[in-house]
Amino acid sequence: MNTLLVSIAILCLTTTGLIFLLKKLRQPYLIAYIIAGILLGPYVLQVFTETHQIEVIGEIGILLLMFFLGMEIHIPNHHSLIVRPLIAQGCKIILSFAFAFLAGYFLHLDVRSMVLMAFLFIFNSTAVVSEFLKKDRMLNTSFGMMILNILIIQDLLLAPVLTVLKAWKGEHFSLLTMVLPVILCLLIFFLFRKIRNTQEIKIPKIFRGIEYDHDLQVFTGLLICLGFGILAEAIGLSGALGSFLAGVLVGRIKLFSWLEHSLTPFKVFFITVFFVSVGLRLDLAYLYEHYSLVITGTLVVLISNSVMSALVFRLLQFDRKSSWYGGALLAQTGEFGILALSVAYKAGIIPYDLFKAGLCITCLSLLLSTIWITVFKRITDRKIVG
After folding, report:
1. Which of 102, 268, 293, 350 is 20 to 30 A (C-alpha) from 140?
2. With contact defined as beta carbons under 8 Å apart, do 84 and 264 qualify?
3. Does position 121 have pLDDT exceeding 50, yes or no?
4. Phi and psi, residue 95, nearest 5°
């Protein structure tokens, strides 16, 4: 118990100090969380050595983040909800596979490694992107909704990607695991259409006593958020998507207007733990020994993802400023990329060196993406681009 308390106290102290420093430098706090994980992880101060336990706790932060996003957004019309994000993500998938196979050809990688590289380009970090959209007050703009819906589509892609990886591992392949998520996504779409113009969803009177009981509010809110996440995982979707759907529904129940106030501290804590877990994964010894490979790979990811995403936005007739900024937002490899790497390594699809390199590149892209986005934002604001 004393060891746990000391570890948490050191984490709080380190994070607070880094936040004060980054606040003066006007940098996002996400950097502080990742750096804290690097400093306190098994490769530096060794305050936290059981990284898997922290990773699991951090995943709750993603569920809470998506839950809050669902509560805050306004459901757009039919065209912007499905067609344009689908076109955007479809174009990005094609470009990602083309770039991955081109890079794999020159690096002499096998086909499976090339496909896995494409998966890394396809997924972005919902946590990073949504924080910037909220900070810049763009979440409910047409451009912000476009990007958020692209991220939701990426969540939908997780199930077929994991199915492919498991099939390569030799596990039983079931067509149902591929088809069921698609059917459920269609049902979710029709549900969104139905409640799009609904100002308030009525609930039974038996639940109205919750409004005056703070303890009951907290646990009811967590139950709704995590329960929908568990349900989504059970039927082949990502838990993040389930929590997002829960947020959309709860956001239209006036009786639950207190949820945002009650659960915000939980969201802040668990999101912090999630990014700390990202820092814990960064193997500094491997980075030191292979710094040229990792740094080059990270820059390739950031630049290529930015360019590919910016091209997609231009094809959809967004202006140059928005396109370049959108490209910067979608530059990094996200948390699902880490999951895909872990599954691929455990399945024996990729060797240890490729797994470590991919993990370091993914973690470094998450760390540097916050600076990358800030720089692009300043450039576009000054109209240097375009």
Report:
1. 268
2. no
3. yes
4. -65, -35
Mean pLDDT of the region 40-49: 85
Give 287: exposed, middle or buried? Use CB within 10 Å, 0-12, 13-18, 19+: buried
List Cα–Cα distances, 145 to 64, 133, 296, 300, 358, in angstroms.
Answer: 19, 9, 32, 27, 30
Residue 176 has pLDDT above 90, yes or no: no
What 3-state DSSP class applies to 140?
Answer: coil
Task: Find the DSSP H helices in the chain.
Answer: 2-24, 30-40, 51-72, 78, 84-107, 111-122, 126-135, 142-169, 175-195, 214-234, 239-250, 259-281, 284-289, 291-315, 320-329, 335-346, 352-381
Integer Cα distance of 243 and 239 in angstroms: 6
What is the pTM for the complete model shown?
0.81
Dump pLDDT digits (tens) for 247-285: 877 777 776 777 767 777 877 888 888 888 888 888 888
Closest of 191, 130, 138 to residue 155, by C-alpha? 130
Task: Tell me the domain boundaries of the chain.
Answer: 15-48+58-381
Q: Which residue has the tokens 């007050």?
A: 137
Which tokens hold the place of 200?
A: 């308030």
Q: Using the 8-state DSSP alphabet, how is residue 258 labeled?
A: T
> Going by CATH, does the domain composed of 15-48+58-381 fall within 1.20.1530.20?
yes
Give the whole-angstrom CA distance, residue 216 versus residue 39.
38
User: What phi, psi does 332 have (nearest 5°)?
Assistant: -85, 165
